[in-house]
Each structure stands twice: as C-alpha cells, then as structure tokens.
Queue: 2 jobs
Job 1
Amino acid sequence: MNMVDPNAPSGEGSATQRVYKMLRHMIVTGELEPGEKLKIDSLRQRLHTGASPIREALSLLTSDNLVERLDQRGFRTAEVSAKNFEELLFLRCTLEDLALRESIANATEAWEDAIVLAHHKMQRAKEAGQATFEERHKAFHMELLANATYPILQKFCSQLYDLNIRYRYLAGNALNYQRRDVGEEHRGILEAAVARDADLASDRLLNHYKMTGAFLSGLMGSGTLVRGQARAG
Amino acid sequence: MNMVDPNAPSGEGSATQRVYKMLRHMIVTGELEPGEKLKIDSLRQRLHTGASPIREALSLLTSDNLVERLDQRGFRTAEVSAKNFEELLFLRCTLEDLALRESIANATEAWEDAIVLAHHKMQRAKEAGQATFEERHKAFHMELLANATYPILQKFCSQLYDLNIRYRYLAGNALNYQRRDVGEEHRGILEAAVARDADLASDRLLNHYKMTGAFLSGLMGSGTLVRGQARAG
DNA sequence: TTGTGCGGAATAATCGATATTATTTCGAAG
DNA sequence: CTTCGAAATAATATCGATTATTCCGCACAA
C-alpha cells in the first residue's frame, strides 16, 4: 500500500533525517552563522520537533565537520577561517583528481549519459534561481566522480564540497561568480570527461576550483567573509 | 546524595562519549561482527545505560563509516569486503603520503621529539600486550602526520586507520604480523622523518602499509577473513 | 500448492520530564 | 573598588514511557 501521509508533506523520512537536512541547509547557506551556538531548545521550537531528533541530527553534522561539539557544553556551528578554506581547496583538488581519473578509467556509456544529463539539468536550472542551481551544480560534480569505485572517497568529496560551498554562501548571495565564464568551464570539463581524456578533464576541473578559490580567498583577505570573529590564537 | 553508577567508577566524560568509545572498540576489535544488527535494547542492557547515549554514539559511529544506518530499521555494523579493504589501503597511502610530506615540510624540533617519543613508547609497549601496542602504534602513526597543518586531512587519516585496523583484528588475534620485521620498518620511517627526507619517509611508510595490506589481502582471498556469520550472544 | 492480505509481536523513533552540570549574578569581605 | 564565593539560573544530558513502523507468521482464497 502506497499511502503518503498528507500531514507530513515535506517529511518523507524520519524526523531525524528531516532535521538533519534542514540544519545542514541552514548552516551551509549561512542562515546559522559560523561559531553560532546551537541551543537545543531554540532549535526545537524553530523546527517544531522534539529534542531527540535535534541532538541526533547535530551528532551527524558533527562528523560532517559542520558542527562542533563541546563536551558537555552543547553544540555550535563550525568556525570558518582562511586556513580552513585553503585546506578544503587543497583536499578537494587532490581527492577529486583521484576520483575523476578513476571515473574516467571506468567510463561506460551509461556514465557518459549520466554526466551529460546532469550537466544539462544544471544549465537549465541556471534561470531557476540560485538554490536550484547550487543543487544541480553539486549533482553534476558528484556525477563526474560517481563512476569511480571508491565509495569512501566519494563520501569525502561530497563532504568537502558542502564545506566549501558554505564559504560561497558566506561570501554573500551577491556572489555572482557566474559572471565568470563558468558555463564554459563546465562544458569543457564535461567534454573532456566524455572524450575520456583524464589529464585534460582533471586539469580543467582543478582550474575550475582554483579560480573560484582564488576569488573567495580575495574576498576573505578583504575581510568580507570572516566578519564576526577576531580570535586570538 | 551522590549516587555513582558502579559501572562508571571513573566517570570522566559523558555517557555518550563512554558508550561511543566502547562501541567503537567493540566494532574495531571484531567483538561486534561485520553486518551484525545493533539492537538498541540489547546494547542498553549490555552497556548498562539508557537508550539515548546508545543512539547518539551509533550516530557518531555512522559518520565514521563503522556503522550503517538503515532509516527506521535501526543500525548495524559496517560490512567488510575485499573491495572496501583495497579502497582503504589506496586512500591511506594517498592521504598519509600527503600529510607526511606536509609534516616533514613543517618539521620542527618539537615535532621530532614527539615522534621519537611516540616511537619509543610503541616499542616499549610491544611486551605489554597487543591492545596497548595497537594503541601506541596508532599514536605513532598519527604523530607522524600531526605536524601537517591540515586538520581535516588528519581526521580522515585517523578514520581510515581505524577502518583498516578493523581488518587486522578480523584476521584474528593470531595475526602476529610483528614477525615480519615491522620494528625495523618503523625505525626506518622514524629515521627518515627525523632526517626530514620526505621522499624516503613516504616511500617507507607506504611500503609499510602495502606489505600489511598484501598480507591481509592474501588472507581475504583464502576466505579466512570474510567468513560467514557465527554469532553468539 | 502458492500467492496475497491481515494481524500480532518486536523494535525503532520520538516525546516529555527530571537530574546534572556549567554559567552568571549578586553580595560580602578585604 | 576589586575579588572571591555561593546561590540562582539556564542549558545540557539522560531516562522512562509513548507512539509509529517494520517484520514475521498465519489464515484464506485462487
């Protein structure tokens, strides 16, 4: 029997899963600021649920490096820093290079179809608002790596992607980095992947990341990004 | 009145932390077999605590890839497979190579002291039982990477180490791989690190892993490792 | 005999409340 | 006026119980 509960339209899975996704979205998009304390009771009221799903979701986010847990002193969102951003960029370049090469090495027609499709959906979403575009953008990049037979590596890449995209959001929605010819870059990556040219595809992918990274590093240097905090140490 | 739980005489951290460490140890050492269902109530009785810390600890372990979560169907320990093991070996070689080189690039005398000390403690623990040795063994390897300014990378390495060591335990405590001249290998790695020879240190480190890996792969091929399921209460 | 649908038992997920712990505030002494 | 300490306060961690879901066996019909 396939009855969908009408009382829970947005909630297909468990409450924990729902809260997890909502919180992650709120952190990634900057709705919850870096270093902000996450009080259980506030979130409970805000998300209209009990304390247990909140705690469980926060535990999951802790291991995604999006939330820090202070032993017996509750949770807070992860801090941001230029150093952290640089590490992210470095690790992404390294790990996605590995995954992409492996993906291409195992290339099949089905995978080609999948990345072409993902690319198309991303392009179509360009006019459908940034939220949709970002979603498809990640989907495209993950699809590029999906053909590698390294599930753990893929999970790492996915986590790093989320951590990185957070900086993009923190840089402000005004970040129309799409003004750069990102469409062309994506097309170039896709093309090289379809052509199964690992060196070229990897080179283009890494440049894609590094250019965005350099742009954000510039913002960070000017203090636009890391606003609320001046920590000693 | 101060009623202290007799099961927590040391009572240092939170119950969640305690349960987390206990469960992780049980999974890593194979006391909980791969794919085994983790029933909340059983664990609750077994560890003499409530359901909340259990659930929270299992959530944490999920993100460590040691436990799988089946939505609304509970938890189970992660499966093992030759493919998974190969991925672990590959990722460890790649990531630890990065971290070690960075560690050496930032080498200081304090770090030299730290790795020499960690090595010494590991050697001394050789006669103090396998449990202690394994602990020190991880400490030594992590100390080698500790001087890299890449906290996320270090976390990845630590996680991968735990996933890998699980296979060693599953291969049986009879695995006295120390019969190989592992002591000599460790000394070689340490020596190269102290000499700040990144290429040599990395080469020796990776060989160290690959030899253990090849040994375990052999066991796995013969079916010693991935056996069926013979579980007793 | 086999496939399908129902119902009870088992188990997971969630909630509300309590006890424990950290933090802040207030007052008094130096 | 500052500093120390204890009580008040707020928040967390945990527990017990309730609710929702899944799993398994059995009856019934084709």
Note: Chain A touches chain B through 31 residues (CB under 8 Å).
Job 2
Amino acid sequence: MTSTQRLTDRKREAIIQAAIAEFRANGFVATSVDKVAARAEVSKRTLYNHFPSKDELFAEILRVLWRSSSSQEEVPYRTNAPMRAQLLELLMQKMALLADDSFLDLARVAIAAFIHSPERAQDMINRLGQKEGGLYGWIRAAQKDGRLKPGDTSLAAQQLESLVKGAAFWPQVTMGQPKLSTREQRKLASAAVDLFLSHYAV
Amino acid sequence: MTSTQRLTDRKREAIIQAAIAEFRANGFVATSVDKVAARAEVSKRTLYNHFPSKDELFAEILRVLWRSSSSQEEVPYRTNAPMRAQLLELLMQKMALLADDSFLDLARVAIAAFIHSPERAQDMINRLGQKEGGLYGWIRAAQKDGRLKPGDTSLAAQQLESLVKGAAFWPQVTMGQPKLSTREQRKLASAAVDLFLSHYAV
DNA sequence: TGAAAAGTAAACTGCTCAGTGTATGATTGA
DNA sequence: TCAATCATACACTGAGCAGTTTACTTTTCA
C-alpha cells in the first residue's frame, strides 16, 4: 500500500469527518447525503457502500462522537484530603468534560435530534445522563464518612450539578454562548463549592 | 354571521394552532405547509392568503407563543417580610413560568431553530433571557437592605436560577422529561432557598 | 339580493432529496 | 501479474416540498 491506511479506510474516515461537520452545522434533516459525499470528496455510491442509509450514518456519527468523549477517569473520595479541594477537583473535571468540543457536539446533535424525534436520540441521552454519576458517588461516600450532612444524596448531587451546568453547559449547548475560560471555570467552581459546603458541611 | 367569529378569523386561528402543533412536533425544516393546511382543515391556498410564506408563518407562531407566555408580574422585595417566604414565592413564580406550556413550546421551538440556524432565533432567545431579570433585582434590593451578604449579585442570581432550571426547565426542554408536580416544585424551591440562604443570609 | 371577499380542490412548476443501477477505472494483495 | 475488491461518474426513480394558477363555490355585508 502506498499510504498509512488502505484507501477504503481513508475514505470511510473522510466520510465520517464530513458527516460530523455537516450534521453539526445543519442538523439531521437539513444535511444532505450528496453534500456529505462532496465534502468528503467521495462518490455518493461509495458513501452508500460504507453506510446503508442516512440514518445509519447518523447513528455511526453519534457513536464516534460518543467514544471520543468517553475518556474520563473517576475522581474517588479520599478521607484524608480536604473537602474543598476535592470538590473543586471534581467540578473542574466535570467542566472539562462539559466544555470538550466532542462532548458539546454530541450533546447538540443529540438534543437537536431529540427535540424533533424523541426515539432517535433517547438512548444516547440516557447514556449522557448515566455518564454523570461521578458526583453522586462522591457525595454518598462523604456522607457515610460523616463529613457531609446525611440526607437526600440525589438532591445534593443534582444541586451541585445544576450550579455548574447552569453557566457552563446549557447556555453553550442551546444558545451557542461562548465557552467559559479556565479562569471563569475556576471562579464558578469555587463559588459553587462555597455555596454547597455552607449548607452541607458538617 | 352564523358564528361567533367571521369565517376568515376562524380559519386563521385554525392555521395558527395547526402550525404550532406541527412546528412543535417536527421543527421548522421537517414541517410541511401541506400538512399544516391539512391539519387546519384549510386549503393550501387559504393558508397562503393569510401568510405569504412558511418563514412568515413561523415568525407569526413565535410571536403568538411569545405573547401568550408574557403575562407575568414582578414580585417586589419587601423589607418587612421574612426572607425565606419571599424567596420561595419568587422561585415558585419563576417555576410557574418555566412550566407554562406556551413558554415551553416557545423555548423548544426557539432552541431547535437556534441550533440549526443561529440568526433565526437569536432575538427570540435574547428576549427569553431578558425576561428572567426578576431574581437579580430582588437580590440586589435585599443586599442593599443589609439582609443578604454584599457581593457579586449576578453570580448569586445565576446560582439561584441554575438551581431551579437544572431540574425544572432544561431536562424538560431538551429531553422531553415530564414536568415537575407542584409538590416537587415546592420541594425543589425549598431546598434551593435553604442552600442559598445558608451562604448568603447575613 | 347581489357584488365583493374569501375559501376550495386539484393540477402544475421547479426544485431537492434519498437511494439504486450500471458501466468503467483504480487499488490491493496473493 | 491477475483477479477480487473498491471507487467513480452519472443517469435514474420516486417522493416530497414551497409556492402558483385556475376554475369554481361559499360567505359576508351593504
């Protein structure tokens, strides 16, 4: 072979990249297969040899974006580390995910698809939700360790999460607001932790 | 006339109602004028006699939804009333708006339109945002009155708002989650106010 | 009551789109 | 080198869409 990959693999990759760009820019309905093929510099027939339909192509794009945003490690609860620092780290990590371009693309595409056809993106949204377990586990551990007030763990996790997402996710996803700078992220996380600990710290 | 309204008024109303339903269900691109006309039990030509184009019809729908969700009065800050009760009332009022069907429809349609074509819904989104001024004014007044810690008013307002919207607006708008019951609303508002006052009360 | 205003059905234009069929040329790996 | 695999160009089908035209009927109101 004359290149690093077989031709067919390069073509497939070009199609996927083009499809991501087009779906992202125009959504599912307004994206035409012809335009994707043109952008990928691939014949329409080749595209259809790789993907049996527009729906299948869309599903594959969701899978690709999903995988590329799936590299997050958990921050475990540590008995001996200070609460504030641990929570800060947790929130900063969460915001890193929320501000990740792949994740944002995924969320936007999924939400756009969802608003119009619930069934299409339902499982994707379920997976999105399940990915956010981190906070719950940490809070539960801290409660058991006696360093956070016992009580409704889900509610506490939801509150913490809302505080972050309300400024660092929803406006960006739904209204195209600019992403927060690292400095802004730190300020937001710090304020959220202060608020949270004022009420939940033992 | 044989009825409460002139025929032409009834037809116009039927078109608007059908258009709301269709745009809401399918979004702008996937909604066909033929289907709107059929749903309204109106000939296509009649529709075009009332509205010169699909874009104009869409714009009118946004205006109608906007007006029908525009009936909110302000809750003013009162020096002599207890903080907790006042905040609760404020948040419950906010949630009433967020859970209003017209407002939800408007937000969904605007967001869907936005994700695909920023310019189309930009001004609508601006107006949506401006409608949420209430919290800021109240907090600022309470700060000046010495009953809330002075500090970053916008941040405090944003936090309070995030706490509410994170559970009572974004999941409903973007993911079709069911609306909160009044009981759930009260619990959410109560928890948000507790958290808020733990940190901000003097 | 009668003319103007509004509604109707249905066909039609010109367009875009998803997906297929085909004949031909390039790439690959044994 | 050679046969199998894959890519390409392009024409085509069948469908849906926005918007228009026409010939006709119903409603309104003075």
Note: Chain A has a mean pLDDT of 87.
